[in-house]
Structure formats: C-alpha cells, structure tokens
Design goal:
Strand content: over 45%
Structural class: mainly beta
Helix content: under 10%
C-alpha cells in the first residue's frame, strides 16, 4: 500500500532553515510527480511546491519562491523540501502528497514552528 512518511520538522527561529523529508513506499516512486502542502491552524491546506517524476520541473507558491527548494532522490524513494529564511507565517503542518491511480495519498505531516 502507498505510504508517505514526513520528517524533519521542528522549532526554528525566524531566518533559520529546516530540511523536510518525505519517504515513500508502496508505489513506483520514480514514475510520479510529488507535492508538498501545508496547513496552518484555522486555515485551508495550501500547495507549497511540486516536482515532476524526474525532478526536471518544479513549481512553487509565490509565498515561498526564492526561499524553499523542492527536490527528490529517486534512488532513495525520498522527496525533500529545503526551507530557508523561514518566517513566522511559515508555521504549519507540512504534508507530502502523491496521486496514484486517480487517488490522492497523504502523509501524516510534520510540524514546523517558526518563532523566537
């Protein structure tokens, strides 16, 4: 079965950095585009970044462009989100997502808190 497990979240000061990971299993990782989303308390879930199956194309929400970098290692079945210059408004649960056979699969999420 498809499984996605996020890790790497934590508490960081404004201006700091974190690297999130999403370990995937149960499907042919290298065949599918992947995405990062986030959800802050009281807000709707929003798309943060996406990457094609080969990693050859990426796109980002305007709010994170120039600060976040999405990448993947198909040999390790893992996707990453490098987050730099973090702001308090980046505080949220970060989730990875994949669409396989017309169904969306989500990880359990990892909490990122940006606070001094």
């Amino acid at each position: 079965q498809v499984q996605l497990v996020e890790s790497g979240g934590g508490l960081v000061q404004p201006g700091g950095s974190l690297r999130l990971s999403c370990a995937a299993s149960g499907f042919t990782f290298s065949a599918y585009s992947m995405s990062w989303y986030r959800q802050a308390p009281g807000k709707e879930r929003e798309s943060v970044a996406a990457i094609t199956n080969t990693g050859g194309s990426t796109n980002y929400a305007d709010s994170v462009k120039g600060r976040f970098t999405i990448s993947r290692d198909n040999a390790k079945n893992t996707m990453y989100l490098q987050m730099n210059s973090l702001k308090p408004e980046d505080t949220a649960v970060y989730l990875c997502k994949v669409n396989v056979a017309y169904r969306s699969y989500w990880g359990q999420g990892t909490q990122v808190t940006v606070s001094s």
